[in-house]
Amino acid sequence: MSATAEDLIRRVHEAGAALEPTPERGLRLRTPRPLPGELVATLRARKAELLSLLAPKSRIADLAAEMGLHLADVREAAGPDFDELARDPNTARGFLPAMRDRRDREAGRVPAGWTTVGLCERCGPVWLFPGAPERVAGCPWCFSRLQGRPIPRPPMTCGSCRHFTPDPMGAGGAGRCAVAMADGPDRPGDPPRYPHARRRCPGWRPTT
Known about the structure:
The protein is α+β, with helices and mostly antiparallel strands. It is 39% helix and 13% strand. The protein folds into 3 domains: 5-106, no CATH class; 109-154, no CATH class; 155-203, no CATH class. Strand 1 and strand 2 form a beta hairpin. Helix 3 packs parallel to helix 6 (89-106).
């Protein structure tokens, strides 16, 4: 029984070599030492079959690299659907940005393009993707909250929060925050609680 294309690629790798598709629909063999003649001849004879297997994975590797993702991580995230993902560029272009955004959220970073300020019932003020509703019952950051990961916050003003009590001595003075009184003292560097002070506060809630 003849070897499968996967078997041939495995033999190339075991010899310390690499077989790569080229933009011209060719195959490039990178090897530190000559390979057996019969293997080289078989690779040439089955070029089309090998290309059909290698080219999609090369394309998804390029797409992943453009987004700063490692192909091994993409393979792990896709699981048994990886081969189908590699064959369908449209599916890959949907899957890879979602994977990149999840990676950024888990690292406590705002994903690229997430410029919408939203209010999650569970997380508080959060950055969301364009077109997202202003108020949501749950959001992508909920996973970070449940895992104890940091959530970057959009800046909100104290005076627009229902937990804020203005200074009784004057409308422009520093007021009091019911959430802060419950959570303890401010952190070093937090601005005073003036009505127009902008804070990145998980407890902010609108007055209406």
